[in-house]
Each structure stands twice: as C-alpha cells, then as structure tokens.
Design a protein that fits this description.
1% strand, mainly alpha, 14 helices
C-alpha cells in the first residue's frame, strides 16, 4: 500500500508540475504571440473591431519591411549596439576585478562593502534618474549615447559584481595558496587561474549586463530627446506614436525585432547563464 501511495503522489506531483508549466507558458507567450499576430496584419485589419484580434486573415510582412527599410530604425539599432557593447565591456572590466578583490583579497570591511554593492543594485532607476540627470547634464552628455554609457553601469556593475563574488568565493582556497607559493601576484592569479575557472559566472554576468543595457528604458527616455541618438527601445515608440495616432503594426514589428537579440543570446547561452547563477550556491 505504501508503494502504491507513493506512486500516486508522484503522478499527482508530475501532473501538477505539467499543468503549472503549461499555464505559465501560456501566460508568458501570450503577449509576444499577440505582438506577432498584430505585426502580420494590415492597418485596415487592425482597425477592424469586428474581427478576432488573435487571428490573422491576410498575413503580410509590410510592417516588418517598413521598419527594416527605415534608415531611422537602422540608426536606432546601431545606437543600441554601440551602447550595449561599450557598457558590457566597461561592466566586466569593473565587476571582475572588484569581485575578485572582495571575495579573495580579504581586508577589513570587505564583507560590508560586498553587501553594500548589492544593496546599491536594489535602488530603482526611477529614483536615480533625477540626480543622474543633473550629473549627465553637468558633463554636457545629454542627448548623447555617451551619457547612456556613463549611467547604465549603475545598473549593471553592482549585480554583476555580486554574481562574481559568489562564484569566486566558491573556488577552493588551495588555488590561492598554491599560486602564492609559486610566486604569482594577485593579477596573475586573476588572469591565469580565476578567470578561466569562473568562466560560466563571467558569461552569466555578461548576459545580464547585455540584457539590461539593451532593454533599458527609463534612462534613455530621460536623457535622450534627439532621434539620431536614441536607442532602439525608445526610438521605435517615440517615432511611431504621433499624438493619438498609433502605428500598431509597425510598433509591434519594431518591438519584436528589438526583442530578437536577447532571445538569440539566451537561446544559445542559457546553460551558461543558469550555471553561472547557481554555481556559487551549489559549490559553497
């Protein structure tokens, strides 16, 4: 009887898990599916209130063609690429050495400083953009992608540093001792030992920095008003909404194209991302 009850409980747990996953998948995939359906409709079909909003009667790629063929959209895309690449590079140049110092080079107050780094990330950007606006304006970087390169690390560096602290702390202490005995310095230890060993954690931090930089909305909305300097996230919205007129088809097509790079990155690097986020907990 006990074996039978355990089998029944296991079947119930499996069915509950499957049902939960299906519900979560439907909830998560409904918005992008609706965006795709709308992007494939003509303007007249979108305006037709009698049709089913979830069904496309006459699929067309004209909205995607209009967006891709627009030089301004290509400019938005290039601005996003520039800002994202620079922010990711700057974030990793700061986060990796900082995490190594806080996790391996023990000094007075290192634990408090590490906690403070993470608490900095918890401050929402909706509170930070006002003082940062004053700083960026004082530096003359308003309406410039360089202003975004300056402020985005306030979002990416604290969390990436926290991820790397957990990963570096999970690496055995014997590696430090062996390297010090062999006469290696701290920078040599970081470059030759810890970076190769902590590569999954570094990839996870890089993916996070990429996602935040690519999808940021509050800061570019506050700091950029010139169309030629806008990144993709606000460029599509600002140029396709005129008063109370919404180009819904092109808006949905532009939003899908803007979401494509992060989707591709996660599709190919999801295993590294999960491994990097969980390594500190599983190895510690």
């Amino acid at each position: 009887m006990r074996i039978g009850s355990l089998a029944a409980e296991r079947r119930w747990a499996l069915w509950s898990a499957y049902v939960s996953l299906v519900i979560a998948a439907v909830v998560m995939l409904a918005p992008p599916f609706y965006m795709l359906v709308t992007a494939l409709k003509t303007s007249s079909e979108i305006a037709d209130q009698t049709g089913n909003p979830w069904i496309v009667l006459n699929p067309t790629l004209e909205n995607f063609a209009a967006i891709i063929g627009n030089p301004m959209f290509r400019g938005f895309f290039w601005n996003s690429i520039q800002v994202t690449v620079l922010v990711v590079a700057l974030t990793m140049l700061i986060s990796v050495p900082a995490a190594f110092a806080l996790s391996r080079m023990r000094f007075w107050g290192s634990q408090w400083l590490a906690t403070g780094v993470f608490l900095t990330y918890l401050v929402p950007d909706t509170l930070l953009f006002i003082p940062l606006y004053q700083i960026v304006g004082g530096l003359g970087l308003l309406n410039s992608t360089w202003g975004l390169v300056l402020v985005y690390p306030t979002l990416t560096v604290p969390f990436c540093t926290w991820i790397m602290i957990g990963y570096f702390a999970s690496i055995p202490k014997e590696l430090d001792e062996a390297a010090l005995i062999d006469g290696a310095g701290w920078l040599q230890m970081l470059w030759r030992i810890f970076i190769p060993v902590a590569l999954p954690g570094i990839i996870a931090a890089t993916i996070f920095a990429f996602t935040v930089s690519w999808a940021a909305f509050v800061y570019p909305t506050a700091f950029i008003t010139r169309p030629d300097e806008m990144p993709l996230t606000i460029g599509v919205v600002s140029q396709l909404i005129r008063g109370d007129t919404f180009a819904w088809g092109q808006l949905m097509a532009g939003a899908l194209l803007a979401a494509l790079p992060p989707v591709v990155v996660y599709a190919f690097l999801m295993d590294y991302y999960v491994a990097g986020l969980t390594a500190g907990a599983t190895k510690g």
